[in-house]
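Apologies for my clumsy wording, but could you write out the amino acids of a protein and the tokens describing how it folds?
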Amino acid sequence: MRAITIPEFGGADVLRTAEVEVPEPGPGQVAIDVAYAGANFAEVLYRRGVAPVPLPFVPGIEVSGHIRALGPGVTGLHVGRPVAALTIVDSGGYAEVVTTSADLVAPLDGLDLGLDVAAAIPSNSTTAFLVLDRVARIAPGESVLVHAAAGGVGSQLGQAARLLGAGRVVGTVGSPAKIETAKGFGYQEVVLRDEHPAGFDIVVDMVGGEARRTGLDALNPMGRLIVMGNASDADDVGIPANELWFTNKTVSGFNLAAFSAAFPEEAGRALRRAVAAVAAGDLRLRVEELTLDQAAEAHRRIESGTTTGKLVLKVS
């Protein structure tokens, strides 16, 4: 089958189209004929070698398509069923066929969702619900600050916060051109990141560096900083434990791949919750389509920091 591979670590130009073996589903897994694959910053990290993976490696942490085959022990699904799926545990979504745990699949039949939009849901929309509900344990009326509010996951966090009963929901962006875009994703206020807004119960940081430090400073007593990325590629930010002790603040981390591997059933429930929210119109997605052969271009756009919403790759 045709796939995009990472034969060596490096820039976007290292990505190559290759013929690889068609994977077969193991126990508890399904194989999916991929229609679309989402493009994400996580795949950029794989390509750079930041997250170590065996080479050659097929990236791709989320897909939409139709079930091709069922592995031993899988029930409740059938061949041909349209689905959205998280492929984040073992990756492989930039290909014509991918396998993943049946727990990480959301059926789409009966829903008014195109497969292009469905491919944009599993990573970012699922993450938004898990971060706010499971990790931050948001309570009604609490205030939320989200860095990188116009990006893929940022575009979902503001809307999910409102759905979960947040009070004040503020986003930060890196340039004035992104302010109006972010405002369309559920944020009551959008400011430039260097303005350092304060007074929040929850801060979600995908940027790292200075944003991580100012995010901690922006918390109210008993506030929670959720760390879930380092898009700035800055050096790690040390946070003294004694500071957390004296200020009654908490720092938590969230990594969707590790969570999905450890808690696949819970990740799957969050995925199906996200799919239902998008289908109902409660979560809005901005999706731009490229072809699978344009994977390198997708990576360049993501790395440039100019993307808003979500890029998906049309596979078949």
In short: The mean pLDDT is 95.
